[in-house]
Amino acid sequence: MLVWSGQAVSLVGSAVLRFAFIIEVWSTGEQATAVTALSLCAVLPQALFSPFAGAIIDRIRKRSALQIADAGGILAVGLLALVHFFGGGLEPWQVYPATVLLGISAAFQLPALTAAVPLLVRKDQLGRANGLLAGARSAAGICGPALGGIMVALTGIGAVLVVDLVSYAFALIGVRVVRMRGDKVPEGAGAPRTKITAEAVEGMRYLFRQASLRDMTVNFCTVNLVMVFGFAVVQPMVLVKSGDGALAAVNSAIGVGGVVGGLAMAAWGGPRNRGRGMMLGVLGMCLAAQIGTSLVGGVAGWCAALLVGAVLMTVVNASMQSIVQTKVPHEWQGRVFGAVMFLSQISGPLAMAFSGPLADGVFEPQAADGTGVFVLLGPLFGDAPGSGMAAMLFLAGVAGVAVALWGLASRSIRDIDVLLPDIDTDTDTDTDAHADGGTQRKGGEKDDAVRA
Fold first, then answer.
1. From CA 207, how far away is CA 99, in angstroms rounded?
2. How large is the C-alpha radius of gyration of the chain?
3. What angle do CA 436, 438, 444 make, to 5 degrees?
């Protein structure tokens, strides 16, 4: 709970800053390309640096890795604050390099935090813990846009930068205070090591040696490609059709859905068959958040469709994380999580790079003129501003449904819990984390696992 509360506060501060960044770059010309370029600056560095971050994480304590991530965030936002307060104000173009630095910090934070969860809870609680972490990210999606919109309107971006600095400091304190039982420098840390690049490649090789993990990651890579292609234009579509207030409401609805999904996972623990559950979640997410959002009109419809999609997304992500946490040895988890993040997310920047220019240069003009694909799609989406981006979201949803059905048809993904055995988690972590039960409780859990 100490780690969770610190990260939750930090996520809220970062969400406030992200919303302020979106408004800052949108104000320069109201172009979808500017907004998608900002998203690209956040996601691409995170994806590219994840394998190397994972290799570093496996060399050090998980708490140290989390501290590196929080310190990196403080450095990036602190430099931006110095430029704003002492450099005569912040220029819109300066938002992009700052977002790149924050993306690099996130490349350390997500694998380190996910690998640290098994050090804090028992194996049977992993789904619930991952749900709580996902809920914290989504809660930030509720508070961030609302608070960001108010602060940008009343105080400007300077106060937003200060808030984010304070939130990073709070997270850093939480990580410093907590004791992660079993968190230690891996054996042989003092011996000569291979290069970071070679260790990052080892993480990918481990992932691809396991057919089920490999197929799951390739499926997620394809899912992200088609979904990000559509989701990248949701924010500019909402801005074009309804303005800043509608965007804040939509982002808050996504946050509410994530919180609901996180609380559901915390109480439920996730589907018994996690592979099938993930694929059904992806299918529902595409139907609701993409196809549904593209077809409904108005803020209320967008909020409802995206809320349902966010609930399912939380279940999907928490299930995937708990699969890796239970199927991969702890000493490999940093590298494997880094490889999973790289392979599943690298398709996202590619989709972002094309979605903005396609929206501005192809789909929006075709929607206005009734040409191209709008000879067929025109009756569904009309010719008003934003109709082209709605059609992009619809087509991405159709492709996402096809990918989800492929995952359901693949036994290596659908039955991953049966085909890939759990790792032996009989470590000192269980004994230390449950001092009231002592060693006797640890042995009882082991016996239960053998009987299962």
1. 29
2. 22
3. 115
